[in-house]
Write a structure and sequence with these properties.
Elements lengths: L1 H12 L2 H17 L22 H4 L5 H7 L8 H14 L5 E6 L18 H14 L12 E9 L17 E2 L10 E2 L15 E9 L5 H15 L5 H16 L1
Antiparallel strand pairs: 1-5, 2-5, 3-4
Helix pairs in contact: 2-5, 6-7, 7-8
Length: about 250
């Protein structure tokens, strides 16, 4: 059951395309925030960012907001609204941001001191990663920090007793059938009593790097590979390196 949860998050809930679309929709809302207004019966127009403390406005934040932004009067004369419309148009026409690569920081459980560690501050980590990748660009004018964004995705078996990364079965009580109408006896099952094939790690974070301009994908990929090599990270970025080498060999031949 817990493994099925992780698989569901990998394949659907936290799929790489889901994270990228969430980012694009968020950027569209941020761009439109200062110009777009929700019209209320009482209290006048409200900005999107001000709806959190206004329940009447908050319940109006449906998918229709995106249609309103697409058709907002005078948007062609407003730089922010036009930028928001351009992002939504990219989504509609499937001109999406591109996944550059994916990496997994090594854990201390791997038996070595990792060169790169993620902190509890995801925003700070994302800024550090983007800055680090951009520094490896062979042409800084062609690949800038604003061309990239990072999504740090947390995969785990669930949160139990306020903690992540624990064996979920350790927090589950099992019961034997009562003997001679006696009371039910609750107990925990030790991992050694189940199987020696059980995993030792129940949570991990993936670093996903995206580029907003598909024309800069190759440059971003080269920089990401160099950054991952320097930080000695695990993950699918190694396959990108093999593809690049294979492509170079084909060209040479």
């Amino acid at each position: 059951m817990f493994l099925s949860r992780v698989i569901l998050h990998r394949r659907a809930c936290q799929h790489k395309t889901v994270g990228m679309l969430e980012r694009m929709y968020m950027e569209a809302l941020v761009k439109a925030n200062d110009s777009y207004r929700l019209q209320l019966r009482k209290g006048g127009p409200v900005k999107i960012s001000d709806t959190l403390g206004n329940m009447e406005a908050y319940v109006k934040l449906t998918d229709n907001v995106f249609n309103d932004i697409r058709n907002y009067p005078g948007a062609d004369k407003n730089k922010d609204l036009k930028a928001a419309q351009d992002i939504l148009d990219r989504i509609d026409t499937r001109r999406l941001y591109k996944l550059v690569g994916e990496a997994i920081p090594k854990s201390e459980k791997d038996g070595a001191q990792p060169k790169f560690k993620l902190t509890d501050d995801s925003e700070k980590d994302e800024t550090t990663i983007i800055k680090g990748v951009a520094e490896y660009s062979k042409d800084p004018e062609q690949l800038k920090e604003e061309d990239l964004f990072v999504d740090i995705t947390d995969f785990n078996y669930g949160t139990f007793e306020g903690k992540k990364g624990q064996n979920p079965v350790d927090s589950v009580y099992f019961y034997n059938k009562p003997i001679k109408n006696g009371p039910y006896q609750a107990f925990h099952i030790e991992r050694e009593d189940v199987s020696s094939l059980l995993p030792n790690v129940f949570a991990e974070k993936h670093i996903r790097l995206y580029v907003k301009n598909s024309a800069k994908l190759d440059k971003a990929r080269d920089s990401f590979i160099s950054w991952c090599e320097d930080k000695d990270l695990n993950g699918k970025w190694r396959h990108l390196k093999e593809v690049n080498y294979a492509t170079a060999a084909d060209t040479t031949a």
